[in-house]
Amino acid sequence: MNAQQEYRGRRLGLTSLTVAASGLLALLIGVAFAVLLWAISDANSSTAARRASRTALVEVGTMERLLLDLETGQRGFVITKQETFLQPWLQARSELPAEARRFTESATSAEQRRTAEQITRGVESFLNDYSIPLVEMVRRDDPAASSLKTTTEGKERVDTLRAQFHRYMADERAQLAERTDAAGTNSHQAVLAAAIGLAASTALVAVFTILQHRAVVRPVRGAAAAAKELAGGDLSMRIPPSRVAEIGALGTSFNSMAASLQDSRRRIMESTEAVHRRTARDLHDGAQQRLVSLMIGLRLAREMLPETEAATADLLDQSIDNAQTAINELRELASGIYPLVLTVKGLVAAVKDLAARCPVPTVVETKDERRISSTVESNAYFVVAEAVTNAVKHAQASRIDVSVEFGDVLRIKVADDGVGGVGKETAGSGMTGLADRVAAFDGKVSIDSPPGVGTTILIQIPLRD
Q1: Which 3 state secondary structure label does DSSP give 369?
Q2: Helix 429-439 vs helix 374-394: angle between axes, to the nearest 10 degrees?
Q3: Residue 255 has pLDDT above 60, yes or no
Q4: Which residue blocks in 358-424 are alpha helix, DSSP H?
Q5: CA nearest 213: which of 222, 226, 200, 225?
Q6: Measured in Å, how far apart are the chain's first and last C-alpha atoms?
Q7: CA-closest candidate to residue 226, choices 250, 243, 210, 260
Q8: Phi and psi (nearest 5°) for 374?
Q9: Which of 147, 307, 358, 381 has the fewest CB neighbours in a 10 Å radius?
Q10: Phi/psi of residue 365, each to 5°?
Q11: pLDDT tens by residue, 95-152
Q12: CB 266 within 8 Å of CB 440
């Protein structure tokens, strides 16, 4: 009961820590993002205001240029009385209505709008009340057009309007500078506040992450890696004990499951090996012997048959050939199920017999040769047979080397000089079955297969007395 209370208290403490850290983190992140959103909104507003001020400055510059075009065009016409000098004046006159509207609409404040409207009225008055009548007077050759009074009036009007333009631009530039300074100050403060919030959030996340990694993530990652190895066929994989109760319980269950699977696979293979051995023996001692007896009887009958019975003799010869073929096929079948030489002479003799029948030159080397468990012997033999078969079928090899070394661990190496490029991920079902056989006896399989160099398969199976 005390242990359960201690476990529940520890679990509750972890939950409280997680909730508290998550809540504080959410609060810090919320504040930081709120400040950042305010800074972004303020920056957008400041950017829009600065863009509007720059547009207003462009429009006032364009409006002043039109005024200067009107003034210089009419002055050139007054002096030369040539219509070509009126081209800037005519162009400015046609552009003035639309530009006056844009200029007024670009004002960034009520005061600036009133000033813009006053300037617009002044420019229109200059055009309609002074410039157009002056041009008409010149066209009529009116001497008053070039009088001092007329010239002075035009200059005074232009000077007044230009002064208004300059005041308007000065006020707009002052507003632009003020907005830029305010935006910079607000952005600096917002960034500072957000940086503090983010730094605190980062520190909290780092501390919490370290705690979570040590208490949960690292053990779970180890369990996941072990589960992956187990799913890949390595039934010898085990999870080390953990101080975290949940992970410890998971590890205990995992290890029990892996041990049960390994024991089940070993019992299945032992049972299968016994069935194969018994089947091969029954085929050899039963059906094969009966076929041999049948063939002997057929041969005796053939010898006793008179020469005059040619058709019957041919039929008996054919039956003898069929019986011999059946015996050969049955012998090959029995050898594939469980080689007789494996039962009689052991693993090394069976591997050498396999090498002698291999279509690719195969060399077998052994060290500390001895008899071992029949179940391990049979599974090791079929592992070698599968590796050699794969080399013959897929490796395009010209030589295969097999090494069998006995000791505390049975080490078998099958190497070929083929095309290589084989891995556990790309290996077929044969390699998967090979790994399953080895894993059932706490063994391991490693494959080294660089492309173009060849393939080396190393099998290691612990030997128990």
Answers
A1: coil
A2: 160
A3: yes
A4: 374-394
A5: 222
A6: 44
A7: 250
A8: -60, -35
A9: 307
A10: -120, 140
A11: 999 999 998 998 888 898 999 899 999 999 988 988 898 888 888 888 877 777 777 8
A12: yes
- Dihedral over alpha carbons 165, 170, 173, 178 (to 10 degrees): -140
Helix (H) or strand (E) holding 409: strand 409-416
Query: Is-contact 93 69, C-beta < 8 A?
Result: no
Q: Which residues contact 278 (CB under 8 A, 6 or more apart)?
A: none
Coil vs helix vs strand at 424: coil
Band (413; pLDDT cuts 50, 70, 90): very high
Task: With beta carbons less than 8 A apart as the criterion, state whether 439 and 235 touch.
Answer: yes
Q: What are phi and psi of 406, to 5 degrees?
A: -100, 150
Q: List Cβ<8 Å contacts ≥24 apart for 78-82.
A: 78/134, 78/138, 78/145, 78/146, 81/138
Residue pair 190/39 in contact by the 8 Å Cβ criterion: yes
C-beta of residue 430 within 8 angstroms of C-beta of residue 394: no
Kindly state the DSSP code that residue 213 receives in the 8-state scheme. Answer: I
Please report the pLDDT score of residue 242 as a whole number. 66
pLDDT score of 31 more than 70: yes
Beta strands in 82-147 (DSSP E): none
- Return the amino acid letter for 86: L
319 vs 327: CA distance, rounded Å: 12
Distance CA 173, CA 175 (A): 5
The contacts of residue 313 (CB under 8 Å, 6+ apart) are 302, 305, 307
Q: What is the mean pLDDT of residues 246-262?
A: 70
Question: Which amino acid, residue 140?
Answer: R
Rounded-to-integer distance, Cα 448 and Cα 456, Å: 5
By residue count, the chain amounts to 465
User: Does residue 211 sit in helix, strand or coil?
Assistant: helix
- d(C-alpha 127, C-alpha 133), whole Å: 9
Contacts of 65 by beta carbon, 8 Å cutoff, 6+ apart: none
Task: Please state, in angstroms and as integers, the Cα–Cα distance from residue 383 to each residue in 128, 330, 354, 391, 409, following that order.
Answer: 108, 23, 12, 12, 15
Task: Kindly report, residue by residue over 155-185, the tens digit of the pLDDT.
Answer: 888 889 989 989 988 988 888 788 777 767 7
